[in-house]
């Protein structure tokens, strides 16, 4: 009986040793992976710092002015007028922000001079443009079609009252006199 118990204990010890070795091996692999990831992170941080330094050199005002003077005949650049700069709040609404169009009944469309052609609603000017195109007067037809397209497009409406230029807040301006980049 003592021998059977000794053999069982030896088997348990061997199993525990193999489990311990497996756990140690997995921990070493994870440690190697952590070191590899840390070195990749350091490389990426160094690359970012190098790119920031390169960007600071590229956007130096003196360099840009020299390039503009050198290539002015090719680029034909002109100074931006102060009236050409607007704030995002002064821009018109996007089409996706417009309220959906209200579709009227077919009876109302025929009374207003619109007709249904081929299952789609068309205005009288579009019908006239199509007829003019068939008769060979393509310039007039193109002009009428363009006018009809512009007239049928919804006009953008601003959501809120736009602030006047005098009431606008002055935005923060980066100080780039030294050409350095701050985070």
What does this structure look like?
The protein has 183 residues and is mainly α. It has helices spanning 2-58, 61-70, 72-75, 106-111, 124-135, 138-152; strands at 115-117, 120-122. The protein has a two-stranded antiparallel ribbon. A hairpin with a 2-residue loop joins strand 1 (115-117) and strand 2. Helix 5 (124-135) runs antiparallel to helix 6 (138-152).
What brief labels describe this structure?
3% strand; 57% helix; mainly alpha; elongated; disordered C terminus; 183 residues; 2 strands; two-stranded antiparallel sheet
Question: Quick recap of the structure?
Answer:
This protein is mostly helical and 183 residues long. Helix content is 57%, strand content 3%.
Sheet with the most strands, sense and barrel status: 2 strands, antiparallel
Termini Cα gap: 75 Å
Percentage of residues in helical conformation: 55-70%
Using the CA coordinates, give the radius of gyration: 37 Å
Please state how the strands of the largest beta sheet are arranged side by side: 1-2
Q: What's the order of the H and E elements?
A: HHHHEEHH
Stretches with pLDDT under 50, minimum 5 residues:
108-123, 168-183
């Amino acid at each position: 009986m003592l021998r059977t118990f000794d053999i069982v204990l030896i088997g348990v010890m061997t199993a525990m040793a193999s489990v311990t070795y497996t756990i140690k091996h997995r921990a070493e692999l994870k440690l190697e992976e952590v070191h590899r990831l840390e070195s990749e992170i350091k490389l990426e941080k160094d690359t970012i710092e190098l790119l920031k330094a390169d960007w600071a050199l590229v956007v130096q005002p003196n360099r840009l002015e020299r390039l503009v003077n050198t290539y002015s005949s090719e680029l034909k650049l002109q100074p931006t007028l102060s009236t050409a700069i607007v704030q995002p709040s002064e821009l018109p609404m996007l089409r996706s922000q417009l309220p959906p169009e209200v579709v009227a009944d077919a009876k109302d469309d025929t009374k207003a001079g619109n007709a249904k052609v081929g299952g789609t609603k068309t205005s009288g000017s579009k019908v006239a443009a199509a007829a003019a195109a068939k008769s060979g007067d393509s310039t007039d037809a193109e002009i009428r079609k363009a006018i009809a397209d512009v007239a049928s497009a919804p006009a953008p409406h601003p959501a809120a009252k736009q602030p006047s230029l005098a009431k606008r807040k002055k935005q923060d301006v980066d100080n780039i006199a030294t050409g350095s980049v701050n985070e």
